[in-house]
Design brief:
The protein is mostly helical and 345 residues long. The chain has a domain at 3-200. The chain has ten helices and seven strands. A three-stranded antiparallel beta sheet has the order 4-3-5. Strand 1 (125-126) and strand 2 form a beta hairpin. Helix 1 (3-45) packs antiparallel against helix 5 and helix 8 crosses helix 9 (311-318). It is globular.
């Protein structure tokens, strides 16, 4: 059984653990947003009908609400940072243990510095910004939505109860955004902790490989990147063409992950060959460890690829005009059907 395939197996299982962790963090964030909703509703219910407020008094009420929103989002930011710091430490420890179990000997031992792991919660970029900036942006957006709904309700002469309903609908959007941010941040910090751990063990690690979940929810991006291999500097190796671009998560709610590509036993000084391939987890149970996403897709019923890729792109793929990797351009961005036809027809 190959070490890489053992690691792919446990990495898929680890994603389930990360989803459970993510659910606990999201529950804490949503609870704080629930407290925020109750606080805003209480403030809107005090002091009479808002439609009787003069402009100055209404502006003061909105300023007070903005301060409340900022306060709650500051608490959310601090709470999520504390959770993510613990995640970074745990993920580094898990990767070492998983690698050693897959090999069967204590081969990986170097941990990144504790301070380095602790900083990941604050410094890791999530879709182009650090977490504290994302929470600050979400705070501004939530306060703006609240103010907009309140002003619209007051302007049309609605009762406080109808204005409260507007505010609650606005907060539903904020909850969705907070959940998406939390999911992606958990994956991003876990990935950063893994990459730091791989760097710390560069004497035994040749590179890193993306493992993408094989099911109908896998995105075009992760289909194309599935199985890709890069060295520790992010340079494509072993036939991979697509750029590393920081690795997973590659989009909001991404479920792909990275596993180490270890040096061969002979490269490490052992006088025997690597072990043969085995299977890894997918939606179908067990599939061959070297099965590509394209091979997996070919095994599905005829309409499955149409649903995943869209009929036009699926036709190009079935005809052999494009590969799944060619769904993306050289920078790793998805191409439209028109662009694919222009480039490959």
């Amino acid at each position: 059984m190959g070490v890489a395939d053992r690691l792919a197996d446990v990495a898929v299982a680890r994603q389930i653990d990360l989803l459970r962790f993510d659910a606990s963090v999201r529950a804490r964030v949503i609870a704080l947003l629930g407290d925020l909703e109750r606080e805003i509703v209480r403030r809107l219910s005090e002091g009479g009908e808002l439609t009787t407020f003069a402009r100055e008094r209404l502006n003061q009420q909105l300023a007070d609400i903005r301060g409340v929103v900022d306060g709650y989002y500051s608490r959310i930011s601090a709470a999520s940072a504390a959770e993510l710091q613990g995640l970074a430490q745990g993920e580094a420890e898990w990767l070492l243990q998983a690698t050693n179990r897959a090999v069967g000997v204590e081969i990986a031992a170097a941990m990144p510095a504790a301070a380095q792991l602790a900083r990941l919660a604050d410094d890791t970029m999530v879709q182009g910004a650090v977490m504290r900036d994302w929470w600050a942006r979400q705070s501004q957006d939530t306060a703006f939505r609240f103010a907009t709904e309140i002003r619209m309700g007051v302007g049309t002469g609605e009762t406080n109860s109808k204005i409260v309903a507007r505010v609650r609908r606005a907060l539903d959007v904020s909850r969705q955004h907070a959940e998406a941010l939390t999911r992606t941040a958990v994956q991003q910090v876990a990935s950063a902790a893994r990459q730091d751990t791989l760097q710390a063990n560069a004497d035994i690690v040749a590179g890193q490989q993306q493992v993408s979940t094989l099911d109908s929810r896998t995105t075009d991006i992760c289909m194309a990147y599935s199985g890709g291999v890069w060295d520790l500097e992010g340079k494509p190796i072993r036939g991979t063409k697509l750029p590393f671009n920081g690795g997973p998560p590659r989009h909001w709610n991404c479920r792909s992950t990275l596993i180490p590509v270890l040096k061969s036993f002979r490269e490490l000084g052992a006088d025997f060959d690597d072990m043969p391939a085995r299977s890894r987890a997918s939606m179908d149970g067990q599939v061959a460890g070297d099965l590509s996403f394209a091979d997996w897709l070919k095994s599905k019923p005829p309409g499955f690829a149409d649903d995943m890729l869209g009929k036009g792109r699926a036709d190009l793929w079935r005809a052999g005009t494009i590969t799944l990797q060619q769904l993306l351009d050289q920078s790793g961005r998805p191409l439209s059907l028109e662009q694919l036809r222009a480039r490959y027809a």
